[in-house]
Amino acid sequence: MRRKRITLLSALVALALTAAACGGGQAAGPAGSEAAEGGASGGGASAGATAGEPLKVAFVYVGPVGDAGWTYRHDVGRQELEEALGDRVETTFVESVPEGPQSERTFEDLARQGNKLIFGTSFGYMDPMMAVAEKFPDVVFEHATGFKTAENLGTYFGAAEEGRYLEGMAAGAASESGKLGYVAAFPIPEVLRGINAYTLGARSVNPDATVRVVWTSTWFGPEIEKQAAESLLDAGVDVIGQHQDTPAPGEAAQAAGAKWTGYNSDMEEFAPEAWLTATQWDWGPHYIDTAEKVLDGSWESTQYYGNMADGLVTLAPFGQSVGDDIRAQIEERMAELRDGEFAPFTGPVNDQSGEERIAEGEQPPLEDLLSMDYFVEGVDGEIPEQ
After folding, report:
1. What pTM value is reported for the model?
2. Which CATH number do you get for residue 184?
3. Phi and psi (nearest 5°) for 4?
4. Range of the domain at 292
5. Between 102-112 and 126-135, two packed helices, what is the crossing angle to 10 degrees?
6. Which of 6, 14, 246, 272 has a beta carbon 3.0–4.6 Å from 25's, enabling a disulfide?
7. pLDDT tens-digit profile of 295-348?
8. Is residue 386 part of a domain?
9. Same structural domain for residues 87 and 33?
């Protein structure tokens, strides 16, 4: 197995300053790799590894691999890819690359260095990846959480709303006040969907529960996340949920004697007394499947949306304070999700104003979920304009 790690000075700075980080670091383009041919012409992304050579696979991360959450789980998937395919692949990763136009150079440099499969793991990489994919038609690009595709660019994500609903059940049952708080990054459909599913799950076991939302405008910012959680705790909530990349909200919850649901991974070790559970990702199987398809020439641009049924979305182990009764209810609901007998957004579902958005007994199509732009009843907060 051959593995090359690209180290960015700014990523090291971001790691060193984790306690005070604000966003995804200040990464520049990758450095320390040999140059390769770039922008080769060709008819689509049909070229895999050169005969006798491993497929070069690159991963671009918005945060450091040590965030214990989103980026950590993607890097676990990368390692699983290495373990599964061995010498058939050579992987590279770049940490703490900011979203937006700045990331375009990173993707272009990776393509020029001979990587034939490149994964971008944050929503804000979408347009830069589209631009670079057009320049390198013989490279396969895969974008996590996005919605734009091209002949050589596919997307991948999953039904986090399934896990969020179950988290909400645990949170609703744990709350004595019925007041839950939620630390959220950006007001995009992915995040709104999670907040709404969390609220619906909480109200399924605690009908009067409310979820108060505070926005941080960062995916990775431990100090900002902590401060947001503390503001919610000061406002009287007794359970904290999050759409953030670190366990900082949980640490704030534990310090206040409150409960906490995390995100992305099993974060119990960081605040065990507060811990309830979390939606967790298993990216490895998708990374392995995608690389195998590129290697054998069968890869096609698709929009993959995994779920609990196929194992992409899982639920982290319960904390000690989660009682037997609610565990049993959550496990029963989880079995229904896996079997396709239940969906979190099964109507009737009303928005904050009381307007019916999903009729009784109906389930919205995936495109409606992916463009969700409202809060459901029970959410206390506003959706800021982007």
Report:
1. 0.88
2. 3.40.50.2300
3. -125, 130
4. 2-158+283-306
5. 30
6. 14
7. 999 999 999 999 999 999 999 999 999 999 999 999 999 999 999 999 999 999
8. no
9. yes
